[in-house]
Specification:
Strand content: under 5%
Number of strands: 4
Shape: globular
CATH superfamily of the largest domain: MetI-like
Radius of gyration: 28 Å
Number of domains: 2
Helix content: 55-70%
Order of helices and strands: HEHHHHEHEEHHHHHHHHHH
Mean pLDDT: 84
Low-confidence stretches: none
């Protein structure tokens, strides 16, 4: 029986508990992030505020600072005011229904509109800073995110998987090491630098080649995101190909197949799970990228999809979900409707990521079952 000193046993126990604590902490931190995002958005989703435009006088008296007389006054005054002028709670001040001190007392307890999650998802009007009629429709932002992500993957996947195949199977050992170093350097370039490349170099190239009035468009953002995603796809794809046992290669060569036939008939089917994981990580990088798309896509609310060919108009400037959060979070007053809606966009991004991961899991399980 192996004899171990008490000191060694104690050290191993401490290391084991440190590993456990790190693992539990990672799970706790993930759930804490989810909780924080949902907590900051709850005021808009589960608002307990009283709608100043639809509430009865009795309901208005439940607001701290509104007595029966003031409630009756508000109900009488709003009946005489055009609904278009009552899009925000500021009409109470503008129409001199209450004074400034009363307004500050009740502002956090009232609202002028009901939040509709359906309208939030299906309308394209995004005017969060409007003083008279703020609107929060993210359909155009979702379309912008999807368009840039799809086009970037059309660029990144062929280049990424092709590069992974070349590095793994076709190049010499010396060239392989050189290319791997170059790919790691590409992955280390900060996203803001990629954004500057899109804003300066790609902007001019797109205007010159396509005759577009402006070059910071879906195409610009997609090219930049594609280049940013290639190193991830190459690294993971090459690892997946290297994980295929050499016996598969030897058996294929023994049957007299060409190198390309070996790749197509043997390596790709054997490494399909890892290659799929590489592509999905690339998609995750594209959806979650912020600074590069903020600089390269024009940050303009447009829907690049329509019913006319080619259906996706790559020379349109767009605004993405991540770029919207980054650009507007610093300007939105804390606990305001705008602030809470930005956190709802964060929940939407979580949902999109979950759908991508769930789809990947189902696809991989389906492939394994075959």
């Amino acid at each position: 029986m192996l004899h171990r000193s008490k000191g060694k046993v104690l050290r191993e126990a401490i290391i084991e508990w440190l590993i456990r604590i790190c693992g539990i902490s990672a799970v706790v931190f993930v759930f804490a992030i989810f909780f924080f995002v949902f907590w900051e958005a709850k005021g808009q989703i589960f608002s307990g505020k009283v709608n100043i435009n639809t509430a009865t006088a009795t309901a208005l008296t439940k607001v701290e600072g509104i007595d029966n007389a003031l409630a009756d006054k508000i109900v009488a005054q709003r009946a005489q005011i055009d609904p278009k002028k009552r899009n925000t709670v500021n009409w109470l001040l503008e129409e001199k229904v209450i004074d400034l001190e009363q307004f500050f007392e009740i502002e956090s307890q009232i609202k002028a509109k009901e939040f509709s999650f359906w309208k939030f998802l299906t309308t394209e009007k995004w005017y969060p800073a409007s003083e008279t009629n703020p609107r929060y429709g993210v359909f155009a932002l979702i379309a912008g995110t999807v368009s840039v992500s799809i086009l970037s993957m059309l660029i990144a996947v062929p280049f990424g998987l092709g590069s992974a195949l070349f590095i793994s199977e076709f190049c010499s050992p010396k060239l392989k090491e050189t290319l791997k170093i170059v790919i790691e350097l590409l992955a280390a370039i900060p996203s803001v630098v990629w954004g500057f490349i899109g804003l300066t170099i790609m902007n001019q190239l797109i205007m010159q080649i396509f005759g577009a009035p402006i070059g910071i468009t879906v195409l610009n953002g997609a090219i930049i995101l594609g280049l940013m995603s290639v190193p991830i796809i190459v690294s993971i794809g090459e690892d997946a190909l290297q994980a295929v046992p050499d016996s598969y290669r030897e058996a294929a060569i023994g049957l007299g197949v060409t190198r390309w036939q070996m790749v197509y008939k043997v390596l790709l089917p054997a490494a399909k799970n890892g290659l799929l994981a590489a592509v999905l990580l690339g998609i995750g990088r594209a959806i979650g990228e912020t600074m590069a798309v903020l600089l390269a896509t024009g940050h303009s609310v447009n829907n690049p999809f329509d019913g006319t060919f080619p259906f996706l108009h790559a020379l349109e400037s767009v605004k993405t979900l991540t770029a919207t959060i980054a650009a507007e979070m610093g300007e939105a007053p804390r606990d305001s409707d705008h602030y809470q809606v930005l956190f709802i966009i964060g929940i939407l991004l979580f949902t999109l990521t979950f759908i991508v991961n769930l789809s990947a899991d189902l696809i991989v399980k389906g492939i394994r079952n075959k």
